Amino acid sequence: MLRLRPYRKSDAEYIVTWIKDEVTFRKWSADRFDSYPITAEDVNKLYDNYALLYDFIPMTAFDDDKPSGHLFMRFTDSDKKELRFGFVIVDNAKRGMGYGKELLTLSLQYAFELLMAQKVTLGVFENNRPAYCCYRSVGFEDTGERENYHILQEDWKCLELEISR
Question: Residue limits of the N-acetyltransferase domain (predicted)?
């Protein structure tokens, strides 16, 4: 059973080990980092910057006191009604075992019940079918909006998903 807690800087040491190749890395982070691979320090530096720019809430899911999943949340409006999830990831050794669905379920509960968000959005690349299916399984709907990215000398489409209270 997963539990959710605020992110600790030491969690970055785990997160960077879950990313085994650059394609996975880019599906997770898009173009938010300049280079691959990244270090825990790189993650924490980006998060420190995000904390200055956004109403930024990084969270870690854990079982047996060890991080097993992670995402961040940030409000996208001044009224704090719309929240965006980003950098959603599960320990690669635990993928396909329901951890992603549990991470999202806990995070949505936190977003709607504690933060009082009315809507949660996220983006997922169309070439990341397992993540797309996981998001849909917890109730996210495809808005039909698309954003284009040029990643690894390819054009990737990012699909916009949302779920409302």
Answer: 2-162
